[in-house]
Amino acid sequence: MLGGGAAGQNIAIKTNLLYDATATINAGVEFGLAPKWTLDISGNYNNWTMARERKWKHWFIQPEARYWFCNKFIGHFLGFHAHGGQYNIGNLDNSINFLGTDFSQLTDKRYQGWFVGAGIAYGYSWVLSRHWNLEFELGVGYAYSRYDCYPCAECGELLDSGCHHYFGPTKAAINLIFVF
């Protein structure tokens, strides 16, 4: 069924395939609030230390109010999200400098801290069958972060503390969804 079969649905559970690809445990639930509004709440957790003591540990939640242009769970939507969480990232060899954030500092140092922020997103949900959808979403926004900086992945000697203001992509998703 490729039409309005999901219009009367009110609850969906989902997983973000992009996070799955990075071994980040994630799940989301979306509730219908009105004919064109839903509330999506997703959470993510990664507590792994990778080979050569590389760290990309984090957890965060990202609630999002969505306005659907047609019916909920079908077609185009705009999302208004908030996000917050904690991280412990370091020893990741790279030379990325993107939108004023120098990620190459993660090569030789470890950053541990928390963040909060908000953004806006656009997405599209394809109905695959009566209960299954595939959804793509991209969002941009702001995040404020407080951090402590350490010289290496395992060291406990504090080098610096500070804050960072980030503007840029705040959400990317390819969600596989089961709609009830």
User: Approximately how much beta-strand content do the residues carry?
Assistant: over 45%
Biggest β-sheet strands, sense, barrel: 8 strands, antiparallel, barrel
Helix coverage percent: under 10%
Poorly predicted regions are 1-7
Measured on Cα atoms, how large is the radius of gyration?
A: 18 Å
Give the averaged pLDDT, no decimals.
89
Give the beta-strand count.
10
**Multimerization status:** single chain
For the termini, the CA-CA separation is: 15 Å
* Secondary-structure element order, N to C: EHEEEEEEEEE
Structure report:
By secondary structure, the protein is mostly beta strands. The protein contains one helix and ten strands; from the N terminus they run βαβββββββββ.
Please render the helix and strand layout as text:
Blueprint: E1 11-16, H1 17-21, E2 25-34, E3 37-46, E4 55-68, E5 75-90, E6 97-98, E7 101-102, E8 110-127, E9 132-150, E10 160-179
Antiparallel strand pairs: 1-2, 1-10, 2-3, 3-4, 4-5, 5-8, 6-7, 8-9, 9-10
Search tags:
single chain, mainly beta, 180 residues, 3% helix, 8-stranded antiparallel barrel, disordered N terminus
